[in-house]
Write the structure tokens for this entry.
Amino acid sequence: EVQLVESGGGLVQPGRSLRLSCVVSGFRFDDYAMHWVRLTPRKGLEWVSRITYNGGDTDYADSVEGRFTISRDNAKNSLYLQMNSLRPEDTALYYCAKSHSSGGRDYFDYWGQGTLVTVSS
Amino acid sequence: DIQMTQSPSTLSASVGDRVTITCRASQSIGKWLAWYQQKPGKAPNLLISKASTLENGVPSRFSGSGSGTEFTLTISSLQPDDFATYYCQQCSYSPWTFGQGTKVEIK
């Protein structure tokens, strides 16, 4: 059974940092690209970042470019999102999502349950 | 960036109704479109990939069609379990973008 379990969310002040983690099981992690996608009441689903199967390539939404860093540890079946200089508009439920491929034209065939990030003073 | 526009934003329907949701892309994406269903408090669930390929375990009352810039998701006979929010997503180019969502409500 495929499982993705996120952690690391919480309440943080604007300008501070937070690191999200996602531990996966049930599939060969190092064969697939992985993504972070967030959900807000105002915007709905918003893609945040992608990392290819071997970590060799990363992509970011313009809204987080330069502030967020995606990474992975294939030995630990883990995906990470380092979020710096957080803003109130980053408040969202953050999902870890598995790509159907190693990295290309990506859609998301499995999702975690999400971890809530709230940015507020 | 490719903009994805879904319509309608909200849809009120009854059990047994045929329901159609439209998704338009700001430029051609071929058949690189996915549809997801999301219920409150749950993760999104992939229904359809590559515009018309039904994922394993998805009921056959769901179908997708289209190519280029215009796509549709159809539910042939709405069931109680189908009341949810539906999103389209273009998977052709980064940044991968979603439509704003269509909430299917009970009439």
In short: The interface with chain B takes residues 35, 43-47, 50, 59-62, 95, 100, 105-109, 111-114 of chain A (CB under 8 Å). The mean pLDDT of chain A is 96. DSSP finds no helices and eleven strands in chain A. The CA atoms of residues 14 and 87 of chain A lie 5 Å apart.
